[in-house]
Amino acid sequence: MNGLRLAFNYLRIGIMNEFQYRANLYIQILQTFIALGTGLIGLNLVFSQTSELGGWNRTELLAVMGVFIMMGGIIRAAIQPNMERLMEEIRQGLLDFALTKPADAQLLISIREFRLWQLVDVITGLVVLGVALSQMNWLIGVWSVLAFFSALVMGAVMIYCFWLIVTSTAFWFVRVHEIANLFEGLYAAGRWPVGIYPTWLRMALTFIIPVAFAVTVPAEALTGRLSLQTWLGALALTITLFIASRALLKFGLKSYSGASA
Amino acid sequence: MPSVISISKLAKHYQVPEREAGLKAAAMGLIKRRYKNVKAVDEISFDIQPGEVVGFLGPNGAGKTTTLKMLSGLLHPTSGSTSVLGYEPAKRSHDFLRQITLVMGNRNQLSWDLPALDSFDLQRAIYSIPRDDFKRTRDEFIELLEVGDLVQKPVRNLSLGERMKMEIIGALLHKPKILFLDEPTLGLDVTMQKRIRTFVAEYNKRYGATVLLTSHYMADVEALCKRVVVIHHGKLLFDGDLSKLVEKFSAFKTVGFTANGSSADWSQYGDVVSVEGGRVTLRVPKEKTSAVTSRLLNELAVDDLTVETAPIEDVIESVFSVGKDIVE
Amino acid sequence: MKRYFDYYTSMMKLSVLEQWQYPVANYFYMIGMIAEPVIYMVVWSAVANQQGGMVGGYTPGTFAAYYIVWTLVRQMNIAFTPYGWEWRIREGRLSTTLLRPIHPLHEDVAFFAGWKVVMIILWIPLAFALSLIFKPELNPTLLEGMVFFVAIWMAYLIRTITLSLLGMVTFWTTRVSALFELYFAAELILSGRLVPLSLMPTWVQELAWFFPFRWAFGYPIEVLVGQMSMNELFIGLGMQLAWILFGGIVVNLIWKVAIRRFSAVGG
After folding, report:
1. Rounded to a whole number, what is the distance in Å from the CA of C23 to chain B's nearest CA?
2. pLDDT of the residue at B33
3. Closest to B269 in 3D by CA, of B284, B250, B252
4. CA–CA separation, A238 and A157 (whole Å)
5. For residue C31, which residues of chain A lie inside 8 Å, CB to CB?
6. Is residue B315 part of a domain?
């Protein structure tokens, strides 16, 4: 359990770092509220014209938005900063510092950064989700909750694997900074259930950038839409992506040490 | 001849927030800030004649860059007067800007991804240089700096020194009458420094331009400047011939000898610079040199006695190491 | 005049050459940007279909037209951001430009105008692909086309002016990202970027008249897509011109004060 202790230590340092910049907390709160406000305005505009969208009603879409905000917070708190740091280190040839530490390389590069204030988004997302659920006259069973949390974890892992795969390509193609911009643009698609998109886009959002699994599937679990097949499919994809991304990183690291030697 | 640069009692003061260490102090600082007044430049005066090349010396933070910025119009003086080519720099009139240039060794204005030639053409448009003049000047500079094969390469692929050559060409295409050069050779290797030095000298000779130059490398100053202006803690410390500076401040000589096993409290003979192995180096006031050497020879069995005048770097260093109180 | 023409063409040329070095990066940038209108387009087309084919005067086809034209106007809207101002003051870049005998704002306008040439060339195949997929209904008249062409460049100037004003706040204080974010949120809602303004409540539409946002974004799109009367077309151009003149004067005034401050505290 050496890895866990290491992760905990990095987390502690990350949090202490963030406390140095407390003003950022207020900026984060403001940003979250602005994003929430514009999101709600968009939702209201849509539902001022219609009563349902792609088979989802207003409250259900509010739940989707809650998951979207929450997952966005998790990505920006724990996944994206680590990957951007890795990209930068590869670009500048500074990765040796990380590789010379006695721990699993993948674990190490994945836990070094933590943006505490992004948790504002996670909390806000949870509150939105809570409001949505309380408006649904529907009792949530233990199974839905379990399905929801497992889907959420799998979604986060898939997004992490996606980022790791993209970042690993930085070993070969040095200029991939725009990927972050691209990801943010495409992640925004998760604000709505992927079912409303045309097939080609739905496929892309499911298998290329797993936004569907990160947001829509957990929301489906909560609203009683998730089938066992989808859940199993998510599990299979998570495992596949994890193995693939790990292999790619290893391969990249090997070529990295080859190049710098 | 009327001077082209004339400054009198020029001063620049900054309000700098005071900061104490620690989280609590930092938090308090958000509410109430304390400021202190820093005199970056403190009433300095000098005149420069057309065609002069003047070295502007001083340690980091002495106020050199601040002065150059005031002379080029980037900073407004707190008090005092400046006149450059008859203009008041702070007004930054376009006619004034067309006749000066400021080169900073650590800044770049060329497009990073493109060959320097493309950036040169932009300079032409900025300064509205007639195309024929522009071509002639550009090719002349390219030849002088021997960069004919480099101007087609993207700037990012050039070495630091090659890039600096391009920067200088770009900064001089409009043939300014006044050059403010702030550390133009910073970080360059010796041959590159030399090249740039010769170019500046050549430009000065061909166009009769006036140059005010700061540099950490005394070789630059020795090669280019007859006259130096030294400032320290914002105050003018010296203004005159370089040779006079050495004479004035080189009040010490370096006495070295091999102690031959004898040991003594060396500091009674002079300031101990180093004691390495048996070799002792002392810094001795000029007028006491002969007394000290004879004492050393008489009182102790020292060998290999040498007496040297300090090199110019050390002179400058000793000038800069003086405390603020001496400058006041 | 000739001098400025020469400067603008030289600067634009430089900018085109520079941006052409990074077609892939520019493409990623653009695709990330295009995801946004595609999402809006899909959502609103779905709403229109659910409501029997039309909502707020828009059909799926005209929504497609609106949001595809949106992508072009968005490219035209790219200007130096307030964060860029913060950067260039911090890095001392501003000093370099201040020493040139030309107003630094000309540099911004010319540089981004040149960039747009590259972006428009890269945009054409993307617009073509989007049109094949989403089948926009777009039948502009020649007049509308001409007004549109003028309007997008005026829109660019308006946005440059407003962003510069915002950027100049950094001369006084550096903790301004909160202000920027509020500005961008207001712009999103009042410009027609989120949805065509005709889908907004009436009071929002009226409010939008008094802000520059709509004239820098929604108006040019509506020129090409919406069925505007001749009057509306030219009133819009007039409003754009008014904003440019008014904004230009304000920018100049603030610039003078800002530079005085900049020259007092350090360059």
Report:
1. 13
2. 65
3. B284
4. 7
5. 182, 185
6. no
B53-57/B178-182 β-pairing:
unpaired
* Region B152-169 average pLDDT: 91
Residues of chain C neighbouring A45 (CB-CB closer than 8 A)? 194-195, 199-200
Look up the ipTM and state it: 0.85
In a domain, B323, yes or no: no
Sign of torsion, CA C164 C169 C173 C176? negative
Per-residue pLDDT, B216: 80
CB-CB under 8 Å, B113 with C18: yes
CB C113 within 8 A of CB C8: yes
pLDDT grade for C178, boundaries at 50, 70 and 90: confident
Are B55 and B96 in the same domain? yes
Minimal CA–CA distance to B255: which of B220, B280, B228? B280
What's the pTM? Answer: 0.85
Structure-block tokens of residue B119: 């950036």
φ/ψ (deg, to 5) at B271: -75, 125
Q: Domain of B294?
A: 251-309
Buried b (16+ CB within 10 A) or exposed e, A206-234: beebbbbbbbbbbbbbbbebbeeebbeeb
pLDDT band at B256 (very low <50, low <70, confident <90, very high): confident
The whole-angstrom distance between C4's CA and the closest CA on chain A is 34
Q: Looking at the predicted structure, is the pLDDT value of residue B311 above 70?
A: no
Residues B290 and B186 in one domain: no
Contact B125 C95 (CB under 8 A): no
- pLDDT band at residue A260 using 50, 70 and 90 as cut-offs: very low
| Whole-angstrom distance, CA of residue C62 vs CA of residue B224 | 71
Helix (H, G, I), strand (E, B) or coil at B143: helix
CA distance B231 to B59: 8
The residues near A14 (Cβ < 8 Å, ≥ 6 apart) are A112, A113, A114, A115, A116
C22 to chain A: closest CA residue? A175
For residues B82 and B229, membership in a common domain is answered with yes
Q: Pick the more confident residue, A172 or A169.
A: A169
Q: How many domains does chain B have?
A: 2
Q: Could you tell me what percent of chain B has a pLDDT over 70?
A: 89
Verify that B123 and B230 share a domain, yes or no: yes
B145/B256 same-domain check: no
In 3D space, the residue among C183, C177, C200 whose CA is nearest the CA of residue C84 turns out to be C177
The verdict on residue B134 lying in a domain is yes
Mean pLDDT value of segment A12-28: 80
Q: Does the pLDDT at position C16 exceed 90?
A: yes
Q: How far is C39 from chain A (nearest CA, A)?
A: 6
CA angle, B42 then B45 then B48, to 5°: 140
Give the range among B8-22, B35-49, C181-195 with minimum mean pLDDT: B8-22
Asked if the C-beta of C200 comes within 8 angstroms of chain A's C-beta atoms, the answer is yes
CB contact under 8 A, B111 and C18: yes
Residues B5 and B71: beta-carbon distance below 8 Å: yes
Q: Which of A24, A28, A125, A115 is nearest to A72 (CA)?
A: A125
Question: DSSP characters for B237-272?
Answer: EEEEEHHHHHHHH--EEEEEEE-TT----GGGTSEE
For the segment A70-92, the average pLDDT, to the nearest whole number, is 88
Element (H, E) at B47: strand B34-48
One-letter amino acid for residue A95 of the chain: L
User: pLDDT at residue B255 above 50?
Assistant: yes
